[in-house]
Design brief:
Layout (H helix, E strand, L loop, with lengths): L6 E7 L6 E3 L11 H13 L12 E7 L5 E5 L15 H12 L6 E6 L8 H9 L6 E6 L6 H9 L9 E3 L6 H4 L6 H15 L1 H4 L12 H42 L6 H19 L5 H25 L6 H7 L11 H15 L3 H21 L8 H34 L8 H33 L2 H31 L14 H19 L5 H4 L14 H16 L2
Parallel strand pairs: 1-3, 5-6, 6-7
Antiparallel strand pairs: 1-4, 2-3
Helix pairs in contact: 9-13, 10-12, 10-13, 13-14, 15-17, 15-19, 16-17
Length: 568
């Protein structure tokens, strides 16, 4: 294949006497030798790997000359019927998809076809008919006119069998051997001479050749035809462009009347009003970051952290059901009577919470909220009409927050540091009660969400019976896996080869995953009855803990820690 990449050829008319070309994407500068340009095009096409055959990355070539019109041409790979042995499969479809990207409206189509091939078999005409059924923007370019008898060529150019609104243009693209052998003539001049000689010799068949009194033949006629079609297309689109501009002007006039009541406004007053509007919006939205709102956000974040710690240390512990027996044990009065295992568990949970970077996380939470606030403010009018200004405001605010984030996080950590390492914290009775009630509400909400998830899985699998069967199957798989692991260890110790058991396909992997989730959601509420309100109504013992992050959070966390000291 000669053309392996689309060549976007842009012709630019200039007043300079010397013609030259450029490859903007390559950065080679001005190239006055067109043989060098031709060699560069060949190298770029041959650079496409043979495994791909073609590439959709275009080659951008610009030609500056006083003898060319302002025009853009795109040379596409030719259609093929079947792929050869050295070409990849699917090459025909790949070429068709690439050409379809460029022949869409409003582009003009130059359907190139050979005169010695029946137009009914022309893939270019067939493709153009799909996107331009009436032929309103398709020009047929018939090459190799010198290979058929003039009368046959005339019949093709008349377009009686396959008419096109823009007509057909006949050209001769290859020079004769005698003309090409002359060293003085380049290829373009040789083609022009051969084309002129051929159509001049058969003027009685093709007419004058300019398209006015005869058929359209010759490269010069094709160039003039392209210019005429482009001028007509641009002239017809001016009306729609004018209407679009008029509508935009009317909309701008109406908005000006609504916002400024037709009063005179200067650039300075407009900028001042925009700044005042920015301040007013920021002040209005800043109410979302008052102390009560910030406190609630931080409490929600710390609640998530606490639940994450409990999930990591308690919910997956097989000894967690023992907490129910510990609560009912009348011998346990204080935290000192609890088993050492549960004390270590509580210390690990306290350590995970205090060392999780509460100051950094709380500062980042507020910084993210402020970023979202600035983004929402700049997303409205009039900043939507000034994207550069909106982008600068966002960049400036994000830069300030990014620079102050580390300092603010360190200050928060310094403020809560005394509470994190105090061995004993005194909590008032009302503070203890408020923390206990918040802990109860948090656990009840967790149980409620688990129940809702189990209900969703029950409806998904088709009822409680099917869900129970699925969970029993998952439990049997776990048992089989445990037995298989023990058998492998025994075989490895004995030096025998392990026996692979056949896999079971009773349920698909997605259903098995649902069953595993159902186990987690259903087992969690079974471990939570120990934390019910009736069993939390115990005496507040003396508890030595490091679980505290601030005065308000100390109350909540001290309540939970004391409960765990007395219960486990």
């Amino acid at each position: 294949m000669v053309t392996r990449r689309p060549i976007e050829l842009t012709l630019i008319h200039t007043d300079t006497p010397e013609a030259y070309g450029e490859f903007p994407s390559l950065g080679l500068g001005k190239m006055t030798s067109f043989q060098q340009i031709q060699q560069t095009l060949t190298d770029l096409n041959l650079a496409v790997p043979a495994s791909e055959a073609i590439s959709d990355k275009p080659i951008d070539l610009r030609i500056y000359s006083p003898t060319v019109p302002d025009l853009t041409l795109i040379d596409l790979p030719g259609y093929i019927q079947i792929a050869s042995m050295d070409q990849p499969d699917g090459l025909k479809e790949k070429i068709a998809a690439l050409c379809d990207k460029y022949i869409r409206e409003p582009n003009l189509i130059l359907a190139v076809c050979a005169a010695d091939v029946d137009l009914a078999n022309s893939p270019a005409l067939r493709a153009s008919r799909k996107v331009d059924p009436l032929g309103l923007r398709t020009i047929g370019v018939v090459t190799k006119m010198d290979l058929v008898v003039p009368q046959q060529g005339r019949g093709i150019l008349e377009g009686n069998r396959y008419p096109l609104h823009l007509g057909y243009v006949g050209v001769v693209c290859k020079p004769g051997t005698t003309l090409l052998g002359r060293k003085k003539d380049n290829v373009g001049e040789a083609v022009a001479k051969r084309e002129e000689n051929y159509f001049g010799k058969h003027r009685d068949v093709f007419g004058a050749g300019g398209g006015k009194s005869g058929l359209m033949v010759g490269t010069d006629t094709l160039r003039r035809r392209l210019m005429d079609v482009l001028e007509s297309s641009m002239a017809s689109s001016l009306h729609s462009i004018t209407n679009a501009v008029q509508l935009e002007l009317e909309e701008a006039t109406y908005q000006f009347k609504v916002q400024y009541n037709d009063r005179r406004i200067s650039a300075e007053t407009y900028v001042a009003e925009c700044v005042d509007l920015l301040k007013a919006r920021f002040k209005e939205h800043a109410a979302q970051f008052s102390k009560p709102q910030v406190r609630e956000r931080l409490k929600a974040m710390l609640d998530d952290k606490v639940m994450g710690v409990l999930e990591a240390l308690y919910w997956g512990d097989k000894r967690t059901p023992e907490l129910t027996g510990l609560v009912q044990d009348s011998k346990i009065k204080t935290g000192a009577d609890v088993e050492l295992y549960w004390k270590y568990k509580l210390e690990a949970a306290s350590s995970l919470l205090t060392k999780s970077g509460v100051g950094r996380d709380s500062t980042a939470l507020l910084a993210d909220g402020l970023r979202a606030l600035v983004d929402s403010i700049t997303a409205g009018d009039p900043f939507t009409w000034h994207p550069g200004t909106s982008e600068r405001i966002v960049q400036l605010s994000h830069g300030i927050l990014r620079d102050r984030l580390g300092v603010a996080a360190d200050q928060v950590e310094n403020c809560i540091k005394p509470y994190k390492y105090m061995s004993e914290i005194e909590v008032q009775g009302n503070e203890w009660e408020a923390g206990r009630e918040r802990a109860i509400a948090l656990f009840e909400n967790e149980m409620k969400m688990c129940g809702e998830k189990v209900g969703e899985l029950r409806r998904k699998v088709g009822g409680s019976r099917r869900l129970n069967n699925l969970m029993n199957y998952v439990r049997s798989l776990e048992t089989q896996e445990q037995e298989r692991r023990e058998r492998r260890l025994a075989d490895a110790a004995a030096g025998d080869a392990p026996d692979d058991l056949p896999e079971s396909y009773r349920y698909n992997p997605a259903q098995i995953l649902d069953g595993m989730f159902a186990f987690g959601y259903r087992d969690l509420p079974l471990t939570l009855p120990v934390l019910s309100p009736t069993r939390l109504a115990v005496h507040r013992p003396t508890c030595h803990t490091q679980v505290a992050t601030g005065r308000s959070e100390i109350q909540k966390m001290q309540g939970r820690s004391s409960e765990q000291c007395a219960l486990p």
